[in-house]
Specification:
With 184 residues, the chain is α+β, with helices and mostly antiparallel strands. The chain is built from six helices and seven strands, in the order αβαααββββαββα. The strands form two sheets. The protein has a four-stranded antiparallel sheet with strand order 1-2-3-4. A three-stranded antiparallel sheet has the order 5-6-7.
């Protein structure tokens, strides 16, 4: 019998892999440990950024509205335009809820990323000792809106954490870097 998570050989059926159990206990201890909050930051909602980022959706909706006006009768065209505006409004509302429900908190020895909106309930805890490197990135539209993304690289292939749409990216990146480096 083999462990379903890591593939390690198990002595008998029903046994728990020691490596996976130890990893689970470490994550649980890290997640539940009570520490003093040092710094907290929320994702910034920027309508301007959402308009720039979703330019293709906006162009597509405009094309649909213009096609509806030129091809269908006025009543049908108005209904299609209203439907397009409802879709666009729902998209902007979803992005706002997503930003409002996302928070990253820095504690004495760990950071905790929480994302709670609509059907998403995600929580990631990363110990500062597990962070190997961190960088910030900005797309062209993020630079215009003065926001950016921060990526924390941890051990393992494609592992880590990305925090999106951070306001005043340079200043906040330095704060985060200083907090992490001071605890190592």
């Amino acid at each position: 019998m083999r462990c379903k998570m890591c593939g390690a050989e198990l002595k008998k059926e029903g046994d728990i892999c020691k490596n996976c159990y130890d990893k689970y206990k470490k994550e649980e201890k890290l997640r539940l440990g009570k520490e003093q909050e040092i710094f907290s930051i929320k994702r910034k909602y920027s309508p301007k950024f959402n308009l720039l980022k979703n330019g293709e959706l906006i162009v597509l909706l405009i094309i649909i509205m213009l096609a509806a006006l030129s091809y269908y009768r006025l009543l049908v065209a108005i209904l299609i335009i209203l439907l397009c505006l409802i879709v666009f409004g729902a998209w902007m509302f979803f992005n706002k809820k997503r930003a409002m429900g996302t928070k990253t908190t820095f504690y004495e020895t760990k950071l905790k990323y929480e994302a709670k909106y609509l059907f998403v309930n995600r929580e990631v805890v990363v110990a500062y000792n597990d962070i190997k490197d961190m960088q910030y990135f900005q797309s062209r539209s993020q630079k215009i809106c003065k926001i950016g993304d921060i990526r924390f690289y941890t051990q393992g292939f494609l592992s880590g954490l990305t925090i999106s749409d951070i306001p005043e990216i340079e200043e906040n990146f330095e704060k985060m870097r200083n907090i992490i480096n001071s605890t190592r």
